[in-house]
Amino acid sequence: MMDDSQTVVYRQALNKTFAAAFSGIGYFFKTERNGKIQAAAALLAIVAAFWLHISAVEWILILFCIAAVIALEMVNTALEHLCNHVHEDYHPSIKIIKDVAAGAVLFASITSVITGLIIFIPKILPLLKS
């Protein structure tokens, strides 16, 4: 069990950790074009989910897709910045790192679009018929 001074130190360290994480999230959405695009897509999916009254399981799937795409886009951004810092000139290994990271985002994005279509199309079609 921690005494009071250890608790204070632990809380200060935890606060710094959260501050750094929120700073990174803020940087991503303020400075990265893809961050803005992903945020807009996420907002659109959330609005559609409310409008179409999706189930709890469907909400979980949509939120997981949003989190996966945005998290991977953030990791991709971090890797790009790191690679550019380490090796400013073209290097085949850096290209592979950047391409694989971008591929991960694309893979998650395509999977998320398919998931969204599977969830939303059966709910939209009856509205179009009426």
Please explain how this structure is put together.
The protein has 130 residues and is mainly alpha-helical. The chain has 2 domains: 1-31; 33-129, Orthogonal Bundle (Helix Hairpins). It has 4 helices and no strands. It has helices at residues 4-31, 33-51, 56-86, 92-129. Helix 2 (33-51) runs antiparallel to helix 3 (56-86). The model has no long low-confidence stretch (mean pLDDT 96).
What attributes does this structure have?
mainly alpha; Undecaprenol kinase; Helix Hairpins; 4 helices; DAGK; 130 residues; 2 domains; single chain
In short:
Its main location: membrane. This protein is mainly alpha-helical and 130 residues long.
Map the helices and strands.
Layout: H1 4-31, H2 33-51, H3 56-86, H4 92-129
Helix pairs in contact: 1-2, 2-3, 3-4
What is the C-alpha radius of gyration, as a whole number of Å? Answer: 20 Å
Helix content: over 70%
State the low-pLDDT regions, or none: none
By DSSP (H or I, 4+ residues per run), the number of helices equals 4
Q: Under CATH, the topology of the largest domain is which?
A: Helix Hairpins
The number of strands is: 0
Shape-level CATH architecture of the largest domain: Orthogonal Bundle
